[in-house]
Structure formats: structure tokens, C-alpha cells
């Protein structure tokens, strides 16, 4: 079970054609799969049907039907009791090195070979993007500290009409 006390659900879910096109019961099922107590930072986890049915008050046949709708809408993937939330790392990327290490550890614990490989590929893409963003920020910070960052005047040019305004000259409004 997850030690998480909350899970982010992107507001963009309400603009998703995949989600909006679902019947209401499948929408509830998807929100449940995004936020139940088994969800981990890896976005892929084991969820025995009995737990989901007890939480939702559904029959196993009803739960299975909703899972099939969510798979058809490409919102989840599934291998037995293992659920993978599609595009998880688009909305829940690793935020730092410790988060990435913990998520990678969880990914390697996934029982389903197919879903583990799929999740690791998505994680690696998201983590690489995070590393590149951090490197870019560090480079910008270093450039600023060394004084090599251009001033506003250098960027837009001293002869610009904008530079002649009172605000840009530092005069009070």
C-alpha cells in the first residue's frame, strides 16, 4: 500500500477527449485508479479486484467492464491485477534525484514484465527531461552569477522606443 497522503490529478483530465467520452461510471473508475490508496509514484501498481470493488461498491463484473472501457480509451493498461496509468509521468514527473531514485526502485518491483518495461521507458523519458531542465537552470544561474547574462537594454537595444519610456528609465509613474 502507498505511503502517499495525496495524489495529483491534473485538471487537464476534464479536457481530455478520452476521459470526456467515457460513461460516468468509467469516469469514476478512472478517477479512482488515479487516486486510490495503492497508487505509487510509479503510476503502476497491483490492485486486487476485491479491493477496488469494496472501495467502489461495485461487482467484479462491473469493475471488469469499466477496466475494459478504460483500456479501450487508452487511459490505462493492465496485466492481471497490475494497473498502469497511461501518460502518468506527463503529469507526475520525478521532481528531484531522490524522487527519481524511489520511483525507479518501485518500477523495478513491478511484477508484470510488459508493464514494467513500458513504465520504465516512460519514466526514463520524463527523468531525462527533468535532468536537462535542471542543467539548463544551473547553466543560466552560473551565467547570471558570472555577469554574462544580457541586461534588458542589451537584449532589446538601447535605441528602442521602449527603452525611452519613463518606466524603463526608472522614473516614477
Care to describe what's here?
- The chain has 173 residues and is mostly helical.
- The protein has one domain: Arc Repressor Mutant, subunit A.
- The chain is 55% helix and 6% strand.
- The chain contains nine helices and three strands, in the order ααβααββααααα.
- It has helices spanning 17-20, 24-35, 49-56, 60-72, 88-91, 97-108, 113-145, 152-156, 166-169; strands at residues 44-46, 76-79, 82-85.
- Strands 1-3-2 form a three-stranded antiparallel β-sheet, with helices on both faces.
- Strand 2 and strand 3 (82-85) form a beta hairpin.
- The longest helix is centred in the last third of the chain and has 33 residues, at 113-145.
- It is elongated, with a radius of gyration of 23 Å.
- It starts with 16 loop residues before the first helix and ends with a helix.
- The mean pLDDT is 88.
